[in-house]
Amino acid sequence: MIQNPISLQEVRIADEFWSKYEELVRGTVIPYQWEALNDRVPGAEPSYAIRNFRIAAGLEEGEFGGLVFQDSDVAKWLEAVGYSLSSHPDPELERLADEVIDIIVKAQHEDGYINTYFTIKEPGRRWTNLLDCHELYCAGHLMEAAVAYYQATGKRKLLDAACRYADYIDTVFGPEPDKLQGYDGHQEIELALVKLYKATGNEKYLRLSRYFIDQRGRKPHFFIQEWERRGHIGYWRQEPTGEPDLKYNQSHLPVREQDAAVGHAVRAVYMYSAMADLALLDGDEELAEACRRLWSSITEKQMYITGGIGSTHHGEAFSFDYDLPNDTVYAETCASIGLIFFAHRMLLLEPRSEYADVLERALYNNVIGSMSQDGKHYFYVNPLEVWPEASRHNPGRRHVKPVRQPWFGCSCCPPNVARLISSLGRYIYTAKDDTIYAHLYIGSEATAPLSCGDVRLEQQSSLPWDGAVKLTVRPEREQRFAIALRLPGWCGEARLAVNGQAVDYALEHGYARIERVWSPGDTIEWELSMEPLLIQAHPYVRANAGKAAIQRGPLVYCLEEADHEAPLSSIALPGKPVFRLRRDPGLPGHPVVIESEGNSDAVADDPRLYRPSMKRSKPVRVKAIPYFLWGNRTPGEMCVWIRS
Amino acid sequence: MIQNPISLQEVRIADEFWSKYEELVRGTVIPYQWEALNDRVPGAEPSYAIRNFRIAAGLEEGEFGGLVFQDSDVAKWLEAVGYSLSSHPDPELERLADEVIDIIVKAQHEDGYINTYFTIKEPGRRWTNLLDCHELYCAGHLMEAAVAYYQATGKRKLLDAACRYADYIDTVFGPEPDKLQGYDGHQEIELALVKLYKATGNEKYLRLSRYFIDQRGRKPHFFIQEWERRGHIGYWRQEPTGEPDLKYNQSHLPVREQDAAVGHAVRAVYMYSAMADLALLDGDEELAEACRRLWSSITEKQMYITGGIGSTHHGEAFSFDYDLPNDTVYAETCASIGLIFFAHRMLLLEPRSEYADVLERALYNNVIGSMSQDGKHYFYVNPLEVWPEASRHNPGRRHVKPVRQPWFGCSCCPPNVARLISSLGRYIYTAKDDTIYAHLYIGSEATAPLSCGDVRLEQQSSLPWDGAVKLTVRPEREQRFAIALRLPGWCGEARLAVNGQAVDYALEHGYARIERVWSPGDTIEWELSMEPLLIQAHPYVRANAGKAAIQRGPLVYCLEEADHEAPLSSIALPGKPVFRLRRDPGLPGHPVVIESEGNSDAVADDPRLYRPSMKRSKPVRVKAIPYFLWGNRTPGEMCVWIRS
Phi and psi (nearest 5°) for B244? Predict the structure, then answer.
């Protein structure tokens, strides 16, 4: 009997759709990012990240470069490398990673401290500006990298260094009067310490994570006190700043009292992920309840249909309920990745299909849409409506880029995509007690370590283009246990067959649970209907009034100027559109595109800016392509929400 | 024979609609602003403007307060006082104005210079930062005030001071090598010098205006050179700044080469006004052509239906063609007033009804909508769509206020409204050769000085609630001349009668011109149809796709939450709405409101953020009120553009 729900780490992806992403990350993204981290990508903003570590290690002379949290890019790259090596050993890549780890360990101080900014630029000012300087954030990423690399290779060098650093941090922060009663301005270490605890079994790390979570938001407010100690001087400008905005980093209230997702979206979801981890490990129902409230706040009131979160670029933040503008949107890639982290942990806490629905939504739309098909260009902001001229000429929309960029000065997103995709296998299943839950339908081979013995699962899936899923179940011997299949929120009807025989099923929190004695080689067929859906938003979402979006399976669709006459805003779908599906060889991966009749009122023969309403329109063919593929042709307008 | 077209200055307004605005300005706004200028309005940001002059005059000790261009608020107030005294003598107000003028003149330097900022705060640094510091802008406003006050009272004290200042400025700026080949960062003096020339006949002022206009945008760029001389230090922050954005203040190109309205909207229209002045005075067809191009750029591609201009709060600026977002709008009050200045001068240049149409549109909507019915609260930004929660919680919309504010730290708008309304009479007619053009239909008495002698015109008008206009013509004796009546762009059909007899008419550039021998007491009846119109925007205006606005006569209408269930975005008009009109005693001034059947799809029984499109709706009553009256009830949502 498995006591705790587990995420299946040993999953090998073999999937028509996803294998090429995994391949892209392994063959292109990881090597490309290695070049970027070494400032060798022509035309891209330099990273300085490896160079900083070399300087801090005494291997090179020079000044610190990049942002104060530049170290985290190296860590996220190493984490991705770790995941990639787990499934695809690569001695050359491992050698490169070992070299980087050598440098990092050389840059570690006697007491365990690792941070190139404070080592090079502000020695002696450690822990004086937790609000802005991301020290514990960088530490957290290093821990995540260490755990991933250790699990992949068995090598302890970075893990030991991370533990030494964590041990040192534990001497600095805590409830004792001689320690700092503080926490980081950018949450991350909280979830990383949980991973470190799971990898090492050392409860100290779990206690420290719990401390950071529960101390946050308590009065007197740490960030106010710290700001006063600094004489009100901030990091970003060397001049007095106003009192810190505690909502921005979710330290305005004790986390257990928080009801609404506010502030910087990435900070928020990283913190909620750690809260869910602790709620599960500690059986802490109060914390679990806070997680559920914050989950609802995001997914019922503040999430784009693409799984994007963060409505405003001011502070890369949530704004308020139902404020989901499509054009001035933020929807940062990292925030959707953090939402996936949160969703995954909620699934471990309690398998309910709504968590997996959101996980899938963010994954298939916002996250993979952020990366170009060549793996070398990224969106940081993932808009639902683009007018390239507005991005150029209206300053309020300048943050929305109509084409993916080669790299960013603040390059948090590309390595985050890499580490997510290279660890995608572990999001497919969870297991709890005697039940294996299948959340995602991705061709793969997995082993679920049930108490009755290991169960191998082979999955074949034709998603996202088709709804046929087949699982072959291979327990070591005949065994009674359960397999629970998620019925996706987008699926109107699903047919289940076991060993070729149709089977009725009841839903339990959105899962079709089949408990029986399974024999090696038993098969489950799960046929999901994938009718194109016309989706509307809650009427409180002002931005989508009178509009609809097209979704089929997990994929949200969009219109692009490449297929239509601009402006796209002139196009309206008929009352009851008849959708036609076809594979389009003109787009990367030959995706299913959805076509329909429509009307355009872009009657351009009257130049007047304002004129009597004419209600004239002409028929047009509407062609919707998967959102994740937008921006791979001639740059132009794009929209997800269509007048309807 | 009148050689030059003239604006009729001697017009007395007697109008059901407008007299109360004039009254409001005289009885409330001017006294209230006097209190504000003296920092005596509780709860409002202090102005410091009078105090600065007292300090500069040596009457008080203290520091400069307010913005670098604070002087202009005093000047605009004095200008409004001048106009008000012209039509309504008021010895007490005149005494107050004389006292202020005494202080201003005391603050004038030996050489003629007047500017409290540089007198108090940065003596010795005159003319070192024309880009940012508004010196010539303040000078211009002082000149406008001096002319208005002189014309109202015959008193020359301020006029003489203004001339001394202008004479001094003429020794500083000009083509001669020992002078500055520069101009101001905020255009204003150009049009003021034309007024000073007209009041004094001194051609030096006209030459100087011409110099500022024609020097602007020439290479080498003055603002770049000046910025280099300042070591790249700006005014707003004492640190090096990037190269000045020349488009912001329209100095990127020689004005004659400019095709598109760009940059800060107020700066732009003040400059275009001076260009039109000079084009007329100099018979300069090249400059006139530039004015026409810039006029088209604004009114055919960058103007809101309310006559608001400036689509973005970043730089209070134009953005680009057809970019007219309703929610992140700027549409500053001053910019619409400047557009009225420009339109008026274009009418002097060539009477075409399109200029008057825009003038009227800006006046009846953006401008009077900016002021509360009590004259004490103002909008600086005039949105076409308001969601109060978004104004509070979405930083990209924080500049949009859902309620009028008592005063502004940068209080350019309220005194600008005061000077416009108190001089409104001069916008009603122009005269050219032997034709009197009636542009606005406002009850009034005017005298047109034709070459054949003075012609008195009495106008009665029931606008904006009804379309009946009656003119009584009183030449000194029987005379042949012409009266041209504007057929407004919003009017489908107009009936003309002279002395009770129906008369056919042909249109000449939008005017029904009646040339005949007029006898004293002849009457013209001009019956304008005022059917409510459903207006659509050009399809390139993405923000208004699928939407329509309601207009009746010059008034644009809007919906308010006070009359509807929020969100207003849920409301749609039927395909062919049947409009019902009624006077509403529940709103200030008992306006005509427009009602229609409509539908709302705010079906709130499904809490899901995204769900299959249901196309469910319920019938609702739609009630539209004049835009200028929005925000006079319980604060809530407002929108001009309605789904249709």
Answer: -60, 145
pLDDT under 50 in chain A at which residues?
1-3
Give the residues across from B432 on adjacent strands: B435
Instruction: Say yes or no for a CB contact (<8 Å) between A394 and B319.
Output: yes
What does the pLDDT average to over B344-367? 97
**pLDDT value at residue A616:** 85
Distance CA A559, CA A437 (A): 35
What pLDDT score does A410 carry?
A: 56
Higher pLDDT, B15 or A405: B15
pLDDT, mean of residues B306-314: 97
Three state DSSP letters for B209-235: HHHHHHHCCCCCCHHHHHHHHCCCECC
The pLDDT of residue A3: 44
CATH 2.40.30, applies to A429-528 = no
pLDDT 10s digits, B25-82: 999 999 988 998 999 888 778 889 999 999 999 999 999 999 999 999 999 999 999 9
Q: What is the pTM of this model?
A: 0.95
Cβ atoms within 10 A of the Cβ of A43, count?
6
A chain contacts of residue B248, beta-carbon cutoff 8 Å: none
Cβ separation of B609 and A299 shorter than 8 Å?
A: yes
CA dist A34 → A41, A49, A96, A114, A150 (Å): 9, 10, 9, 20, 20
d(Cα B379, Cα B381) in Å, to the nearest integer? Answer: 5
Q: Please report the residues numbered 357 through 396 in chain A whose beta carbons come closer than 8 angstroms to any beta carbon of chain B.
A: 387, 389-390, 392-396
DSSP string of A47-92, one letter each residue: --HHHHHHHHTTSS-----S-TTTHHHHHHHHHHHHHHHHHS--HH
**Residue extents of the structural domains in chain A:** 13-43+286-421, 429-528, 533-643
Return the pLDDT at B6.
72
Measured CA to CA, the distance from residue A352 to residue A173 in angstroms comes to: 36
Contact across the interface for A312 and B396, Cβ inside 8 Å: yes
Inter-chain touch B323–A614, beta carbons under 8 Å: no
CA A392, CA A196: separation in Å to the nearest integer? Answer: 45
Instruction: Report yes or no: B315 at the A interface, CB cutoff 8 Å.
Output: yes
Q: Cα distance from B367 to chain A (closest Cα, Å)? A: 19
The closest of A561, A295, A604 to B539, measured between CA atoms, is A604
Residue of B nearest to A574 (CA): B615
Confirm or reject contact between B610 and chain A (CB < 8 A): yes
Which whole number is the average pLDDT over B120-149?
96
Between the alpha carbon of residue B156 and those of residues B110, B147, B150, the distances in Å are 18, 9, 6
Measured CA to CA, the distance from residue A104 to residue A116 in angstroms comes to 9
- The catalytic residues of A are 316, 412
Lowest-pLDDT range of A271-285, B252-266, B405-419: B405-419
Question: DSSP string covering A255-311, please?
Answer: GGG--S--SBHHHHHHHHHHHHHHHHHHT-HHHHHHHHHHHHHHHHHSB-TTS-B--
A601 interaction partners in chain B (CB closer than 8 Å): 539, 545-546
Residue of A311, A328, A389 with shortest CB distance to B328: A328
B409/A459: higher pLDDT: A459
Distance between CA atoms of B196 and B465, rounded to whole angstroms? 38
Residue A604's pLDDT is 66
Name residues whose C-beta falls within 8 Å of residue A434's C-beta, 6 or more positions apart in sequence: A1, A2, A450, A451, A452, A480, A481, A482, A515
Residue-wise pLDDT for B571-627, tens only, equals: 999 989 999 999 999 999 999 999 999 999 987 688 999 999 988 899 999 999 999
Residue B613, chain A, CB below 8 Å: the answer is yes
pLDDT tens digits for range B513-549: 999 999 999 999 999 999 999 999 999 999 999 999 9
Question: From the CA atom positions of chain B, what is the Rg in Å?
Answer: 25
Task: Measure the CA–CA gap between B288 and B276, rounded to whole angstroms.
Answer: 6
